[in-house]
Every structure is written in structure tokens, then in C-alpha cells.
What does this fold into?
Amino acid sequence: AVVSTQSDKLSREYDTLCVLDCSHITLNQVVFREEKKFQILANYGYNVPPINFVAGNLHQIAKDDIGTMEDWMERYGEEIGEKGGKIMGWYRGPNPALWTSSPELLKEIFIKDAETFIDRPMLDRSDNIPHLINMKGKEWKRARSTLAPTLHRSKDRRKCT
It folds into this structure.
């Protein structure tokens, strides 16, 4: 009976070790997958502030979003070159995002390449007022085509004279 008890005890300890080992392997796989997800922007060459594997960078901008983003742009932003301004990456939760201070790059994205960037992620807005940046699909195309003439320089010169 004593041998059987020791054998049972060893069997339970072995089972426990197997479960812990499997849990450890699973946890390592999850962490590896999360780390890989948060390397997307770095793989494309963008500088990114330190991230949290759950919140990305959202936890850092919770108190002062504009101040934090300006600080990040100063610390992590890279000069774009002839377009002027800077660009950097950050994570909205697990989702990669880019932030730029280049009006020329924004003009290229929102005007010249507008068809490519038609649907963007929704922003959380508490005011429920439709904003161009929150619109998608046909609604966005209609609003953009209405606003597009106001974004061209030739129109700006006529307004200022």
C-alpha cells in the first residue's frame, strides 16, 4: 500500500508538471504571437514608442492624448524628407497606426491617393457628429468630393485676394 501511495504521488506530480509545461509552452506561443504582432511597424522601418502587449500605446495617451502624441513625435518621429514633417508608428490596441506632421503627405493620402484610403478605422467620438475621418464608403466619397475643391491651392489664392 505504501508503494502504491508513493506511485500515485509521483503520478500526480508528473501530471502536474506536464500541465505546467503545456501551460508554459502555450503562454510562450501567445507571447511570441503578440510580440510579432507589435513588430509590424518596426519591420517597415517606423519608430514606435514602447508598447504594452494588451493596450499597445493607448494606455499612454489616456490622460493627455495631444501632449503625449507631440512628445512622441519629437522623440520617435523621423523626418520624411522632401515632403517635410515627421512620421512615426504607434499601436491603437493591437492595431498599427501611423501619425504624421506632414501636410504634404496628408494631402497625398487624402487627395491624390484617396481611392486607396477610402475606409479607415473608426475613432471613438462621444458627440455623434459625422466627421469626414469617421465616414466610410459612399458617404465618405460624397463628403470628400464636396470638400475637395476647398483643398486645392488655386482656390486658396482666390479666397485670399
